[in-house]
Each structure stands twice: as C-alpha cells, then as structure tokens.
Design a protein that fits this description.
The complex is a heterotrimer of chains A (about 200), B (about 600) and C (about 110).
Chain A lengths: L2 H20 L3 H21 L3 H26 L11 H23 L12 H4 L8 H7 L5 H11 L2 H21 L16
Helix pairs in contact in A: 1-2, 2-3
Chain B lengths: L4 H15 L5 H22 L9 E6 L2 E5 L5 H24 L6 H20 L3 H19 L6 H32 L17 H18 L8 H4 L5 H10 L4 H13 L12 H20 L5 H21 L3 H28 L12 H4 L1 H14 L6 H16 L1 H26 L6 H4 L6 H16 L23 H21 L10 H4 L4 H50 L5 H21 L3
Antiparallel strand pairs in B: 1-2
Helix pairs in contact in B: 1-2, 1-4, 2-3, 2-4, 3-4, 3-9, 3-13, 3-19, 4-5, 5-6, 6-7, 7-10, 7-11, 9-13, 10-12, 10-13, 11-12, 11-17, 12-13, 12-16, 12-17, 13-15, 13-16, 13-19, 15-17, 15-19, 16-17, 17-20
Chain C lengths: L5 H21 L3 H25 L9 H32 L13
The chains are: A mainly alpha (about 200), B mainly alpha (about 600), C mainly alpha (about 110).
Chain lengths: ~200, ~600, ~110
Amino acid sequence: MPSPFFYIFAAMMLSGGLMVIFMRNPVSSALSMVLSFLGLAGIFIGLNAYFVGILQILVYAGAIMVLFIFIIMLLDVKDEESHPRKGLAITAGVLIPVALIIQLAGVILTDDKSPSAPPLTLEAAAADYKQESVIHKKLSNGSLPDVHLIGRKLFTEYNFPLQVIAVLLLVATVGCVALSKKSSAPKDGAKPDKG
Amino acid sequence: MNPWLLLIIPIASAVIIQLGLKRNATASALLSTLSVASTFLISYLLLGKELSAAPIEWINIAGLQLDIGLQLDSLSKGMMIVVTAIGMLVHVFSLGYMKDDEAKARYFGCLSLFMFSMTGIVLASNFVMMFIFWELVGLSSYLLIGHWYHKNSAADAAKKAFLTNRIGDFGFMIGILMLWGIMGTVVFADMDGSKLSLLCTCLTGTVVLLIFCGAVGKSAQLPLHVWLPDAMEGPTPVSALIHAATMVAAGVYMMARLFLSLGITPDTAELIGSAPQVIAWVGAITSLLAALMATQQNDIKKILAYSTLSQLGYMVMAVGLVDANAGMFHLYTHAWFKALLFLGSGAVIYACHHEQDIWKMGGLFGKMKITAITFIIGTMALTAVPGTSGFFSKEGILHAAHENNQALFYIAVIVAALTTFYMFRLIFVAFFGKAKNEHAEHAKEVAPVMWIPLALLAIMAFASPFLGKLIPATEGYHPHLGFEINVVTIASLLAFAVGFIAALILYKGKTSDPVNIPLFRNKFYFDELYAWIIKIFQDALAAIVHFFDAFIINAMIIGGLSRSAVGIGNIFRRYAQSGSISGYAFLMAVGALLVIFFTVFASK
Amino acid sequence: MPTPSINEYLIISGLLFAIGLGGVIIRRNIIVIFMCLELMLAAASLTLVAFSRFNVTDKGLPDYDGQMLVFFIITVAAAEVAVGLAIIVSLYRARQSIHTDELTSLRG
C-alpha cells in the first residue's frame, strides 16, 4: 500500500477514535467508532488481509455498532453534559496514554531497522497446492486467494479452536437470554454472520 | 508366667469396662475383681523366683535410652503382694459396699486403672516410667475421689488432691532430670552410687530432696498433706486401697527404691549431705502434727486419714534415718491393718446409712460383732500392742530413731501415745456406750462379702510379720521379731498405757466431746493459711499477669499490630477503593505501565 | 511509491490503544467506556495483522496465523459485546443509571 493511502486511513482511524472520546452524545460516539473501524479496515486491506478487513466492517460496523446504537436508544441514555467533567480524570486520562506512547516510542526508536513490507511471491507459492485447486489457479494468476487460504487453515490447523469458539458463542447467546429474560433480547440477532 | 501380665490384665480390664461394659455393672465388677485376683495369683507365683522380663525399647537417642521394663527384685515383688492382695480384698469388699451405686461400672473401671498404674509404679525399671505411672495413679486417685462428683465437696477434694500433687511432682520431675544429669541414666539397675562421692553434697542432697518432693506430695507429708483428709470424700474402699495402703505409701517405696539404687546405707549417707535429716524431720513433724489433729476429729474417716498421715510420717522418718527397710516393713504391716481399719469404718458407715460422725454412733459393738472385733484388732495393731504386726514394725522405727537421734525418738514415742489415745477415743465413742442416733440403733452386721475381707485382713494384722518372703525389703533383710525388755520396748508400752488410760478416762461413756482444742480441730489452720497465701500471691501474680496481658500483649503488641493493619488498610480503602471505575482503570493502567517499565527498560 | 514501514503500523496501533485507554479513564458513560475497550482490542488486531503481513513465510505468502488470531479476537469480541450489553441493560434496570459516578458499590 502506498504511503498516502496509509496515512489517509490512519488519520481516519485515529480521528474516529478521538471522536469516540470527545463526542458527548453516545450515538455520535458509536458512529465515530464506525468511522474508526472503517479506517482500520482500509489499513487491513492495504496489508493484503482482505478477509479480516471485510470481517471488521461486517462485524463491527454492521453488527456491533447496531447493537450499541440499539442499547443506547433502548436505555434512552442522556449525554454527559449534566455531569461536569472532573479535571483530575482528564489529567489522568491524558497522562497515562502519553506515558504509554513515550514507552512505545522508547522501544521503537531504539531499533533503527524499520523494514517495509516484503514482497509476496505468489507464483512461487502456487507450487505447494494441487494443480486443479482454486488456490493454485489464483496464485498462478498472480492474485492472493485470501479467503481460500484462511478457510483452508481454519478447517485444518485451527479446527479445534473453531469448535470451541462455536460453543463459546452458544454460551454467550444463552447468557444474553438469561441476563435479559424479562425483556426481549434483540442483541442476539446480530451474531450468526460471524460464526 | 510372663510378668508382663501383671500390667496387661488390669489395663485390659479397665479398657474393656470403659469401652464395652459400661452398661453392665455386675459384669464390670466381676471382671475387675477377677483381674485383680489373677494379678494377685501371678504376684504370688513370682515370689522367690528369678525371672526377668524382656524390656520394650521406647526411646533410644544419643545419651538417653529408655525402656519400658520391669524391675523384679524382692522389694518390688513384696510390694506387689501388698498391692494386689489388698487390692483384691478391697475389690471384694466393694462388691458389697458399692452394690447399689449408680456408677458401679465406672467405679470398677477406675479401680482397674488404679491397679494398672500402681503396678506400674512398683515394677518400673526406671525413673521416667515410674514418673508416668506416678501421674497415672494421681489420675485414678482423682477419678476415684471424685466418684460422687455431683457432690461439690467430692469434686473439690479431687481437684485439691490433683493440684497438691502437682506441686510435689514438679520437684520430682526436676529431681529426675538432675539425677539423669548426674548419673547419665535413669534406670535403677544402672545407677552407680560411687559417682555421688565425686560431687558436692549440696548438689546430691538437693537431688535427693527434689525427688523427695514427689514423695511429699504423694505420701502427703508436710506441707503438702492437706489433700489426704479431704480425699476421704471418695468411697471408703478407695480410701482403704489408695489413701491408706498403697498409693500414699508409694512415696516411701520410691524413696526406698532410690536409696537402694544409689546404694545409700548408713555408712554412705554423708554422700547426700543433710538430706536424710531433712527427710526424717519432715516425717517426724508430719507424724506429730497429724496425730494431734486426729485427736480432735469427729468424722471416723478423717480420724483414720490423720492416722494414716501420722503413720506415713513414721515411715518417712525411717527412710530419713537411712533405715529404708524399717520404713518398708512398717509400710507392709501398716497396709494390712490400715486397710482393715478403713474397710471396718466402711462397714460401720454402710451399716449406719452413710453416717460418718462418731458422736452419732455408739453401741455398735453389740450389733456388729465381727466388724467391731476386727476393727479392734486393727486398732491394736496400729497402737502397737505387743504381738501384733504393728508392734514389731513400729519397734523397728523406734529403734532406728533411738540409735540415731534422741529428739526424733521422743517425738515418735509421743506420737505413739497420741495414736493410742485417738484410736481408743474412736472405739469408745463409736463402738461402746449408748447408740446416739436412730441409724446406729438399727445397725446390723454387714454381709459376708464385706466381713470376709475384714476377717482376712485381721488375720494378716497378726500374721504379716511372720510371712517373711512376702515382706518388701532388700534381699536378706529379716525384721526383728522378738520381745526383749529395753528402753524402746518400755517406751512403747508406756506410750500405749498413757494413751489408753487417757482415752478411757476422757471418753468412756461420754456423749459429747469433753475436750475442745480449736487449734487441733481446725488442723492447725493449714487450709486457711494456704488459702491466705494463695489469695495474696495469686492475686498479686494475677494482677501482674493481667497488666502484662491487657496492656502490653493485648493493647500494645496484638492491639497495636491490628490497629496499624486496620489503619493502613483504611488508607487504601479510603483512597484506592473509591468505587470509581475510572479510578480502577487508572490504577490498572499505572500498573501496566510499571510492568512495561520494569521488564523492558529497567532490566537493561 | 514508498510503502509504510512496520514501525509506522506499530505507532498508529499504539496511538489507537492509547486513545482507547484514555477514553476508559476519562469517560463516565459505561457504554462509551465499552466502545473504548473495543478500540483497544482493534489496536491489538492491527498489530497482529501488520506482523502477519511483514512476516512472510518461506513460500512467499503472509503468515496467516496472525490473521487467525484476529479472526478469533473478532468473534470473542462480538460475544463479549453481546453479553456486556446484556449486563449493562440489567444494570440499568437495577440502578436506573449507567453513569459510573453513580455506580460505586465497590467503595470500601
């Protein structure tokens, strides 16, 4: 990914993040979060991680954001204007992240090697896959069959964690139902598209 | 015949009764009686045989080897005869005396435990084992004195006996440890008396006197005598067995055992300094004071208890005169006739429906012939009428005193006169004259199960000195059994005459006590004195301890620590546990930053 | 055209994480705090994906293990959001507030 795009997406992501904090209305915060995640998805795609990028948009911007908005609306949350902000909290909330950034910079700046992304050699990698498989064909054609490769890995090497995560989602579903038994539980509808 | 059976049978009986037969009183009584009868048989068969029992190894560390072993010599075998024979007769007597008692099974279980413990003392092969059984007899004595524990006086008497013995046993224990330090062993057979000559007499004398402390407690010598009269709260057969014949004599036996092991004879007595003189004087003063107290008691058992004290004083005096054989001989004869007197008083008390005041008895001679005659025989033995066992044994002690110390001799003679006086006072008041009470009016002779032991003991009151091989003494000791006219005999007879005539004049046919000496009646105010001392010292000590506990330990150490912990905790509670989620997030982030700092940066 | 180096990715990831952390400390609305937590998770995902791309395997393909982890993070986060929001609804029902200044029952 050329640097200009990276900077555009990074700016989008960070400004979205900042807006989450500084918007007083929770709905605005939720929408700012979507903006931030869209920028993040752009960066993912720029890193050749197409599947994860799309997933980020679908799950966060699609499902989770809707869930947040729904709860905000359901609870009819007032914005924080009625509560004056405490200077102490803001000071702490600035100092700690700054200290964290300083530490991070301290680690990164001591390392003068900062390589760019190494090139991918797709045609060479095709040799490992069967002639007639989609992966082989796509790789031979010079395109990255991202979804296929992830799927292949997911259902072979990561099969057991996949089963576990399915059980986890089931438990979460049951948990949501149990927690909000008195009211209808609309939160659960958002999940099937991630499983 | 395995000598170990002597220990195993009684403890097995006690355990079986305690665990299994609690509800079956008759079976418990029979089992207990059978067990003691079989131990008597075994003891009798052991006489004159050279037997050794393999010891059981118990503790074996560098510098200390302790075995549970048996000491089988003529001293212990003779003592076993005394213990088991009187124990057997007391068991038989108890079958009648305790017939209607509610806790008969417990009573017989405790008796079996006592027989076990007493056997242990007699047969112990070393001082540590003896000390353990020494404490066990204390325990069984406690249990039996407090047999009627629902009576406050019995419960208090049991506690008093136990606590008073603690004082003596503490000295005993220190003495044992010091003896171990000097001798390098606590086994009787391994002790080497010649080591004593290497040491200062102040040290050896102290050791002997500390061990004597145990005897002072157990044999109720001054100043620890106060528990024995109170111990009469227990059932009368118990008083006969434990507090007259066997356990209280254990102190004398132990001293005899000590002198025998250390090889202390009149020739070597100077090795332990002035300890023998101290022992002799303690015995003599106990003897005199107890006899004086006995003259003014009204309770039949109390009179016998003070008489026991007085006779124990005699024995201790004999030990102190370094004539342990004379002491043991008196112990042996005294055990028979004093058990006889106690059992006789038990029969009287039983016949008079548990009336113990002699001034409420009277005229019992006509109604209880056998009891009365045996009682008078016991009295004659106790007052040393020539021909009875007491005459020979007391004469031995008087001889020893006459030869060594004239002052002690005069005290002993005065005590003999007093003994005659108070015993015949008892007989004139309780057995002659008119019945002074309805119970005494209707008293009947007791059942054979009770008078047969009396008759057997009465025979022993005459015969015991002549059964030479039964006598517990060192090998080759033969008591002097003749009758010669000399100073000692004349003094003894004179003492008897004076005591008897005084009793006859003062008490024949009287219905109330013509003499009233409050000092004697109140036992020289020993109990009051102790109560006063304890009050002063205990209160002062308690105040100091209370101050230390309340202000230093509680307020400063414990309280201070807990208050500082609470204070520091409060600081955290107030400032850190604010309940604010942001605060927690902040603290957690600070923690994470510190972790990064220390792992990434500070470690370089 | 120059391409961004690994350090640039790590820096913006750290910035996003710091923004999320600051939000958690500053904001009082528990739903917004929850969103900030999501931002911090996303920052971690970004790091993983960047390392996945920069750690090319022998075959010349990205290291997909990192992306696997991101996949699981997203799934768990979705479940977490569902449960978390259900808890918040219950909390609101019990206390009539989702403002952290008023939720101080942990005070010692």
